[in-house]
Amino acid sequence: MDNRLVEFAEAAIRSFLIARPDSADTVDGIHRWWIQWPGLAESPVVTQIALERLEQAGEVEHFRIGTSILWRRPRRAESGGCE
């Protein structure tokens, strides 16, 4: 795996979340819509690895809704509420 591609995807995901902090999507949605690939889109594996690295750094989290796994910025637990 080309580390430069993963770093490119990480930077694109960060930029997207800065502009749209309440966004959440699947790996496929993030791969297709959040990352503006130069030329043809790379493998979704690049996006998956980027998301996993961002999660390890505490920059994103994943959660399940039904059978889908969505990725988003980490949410702080609000007092009196539940997620």
Molecular structure report:
This protein has a single domain (3-72), classed as Orthogonal Bundle (Arc Repressor Mutant, subunit A), CATH 1.10.10.10. 46% of the residues lie in helices and 14% in strands. The chain contains three helices and three strands, in the order αβααββ. Strands 1-3-2 form a three-stranded antiparallel beta sheet. β2 and β3 form a beta hairpin. The longest helix is centred in the first third of the chain and has 17 residues, at 3-19. The protein is globular. The relative contact order is 0.19.
Assign the CATH class: Mainly Alpha
Rg measurement, Å: 13 Å
Largest beta sheet: strand ordering = 1-3-2
CATH topology category name: Arc Repressor Mutant, subunit A
Summarize the structure.
By secondary structure, the protein is of the alpha+beta class. The protein contains three helices and three strands, in the order αβααββ. It has a three-stranded antiparallel sheet.
Keywords:
disordered C terminus; 83 residues; 46% helix
How are the elements arranged and paired?
Blueprint: H1 3-19, E1 24-25, H2 27-34, H3 44-56, E2 61-65, E3 68-72
Antiparallel strand pairs: 1-3, 2-3
Helix pairs in contact: 1-3, 2-3
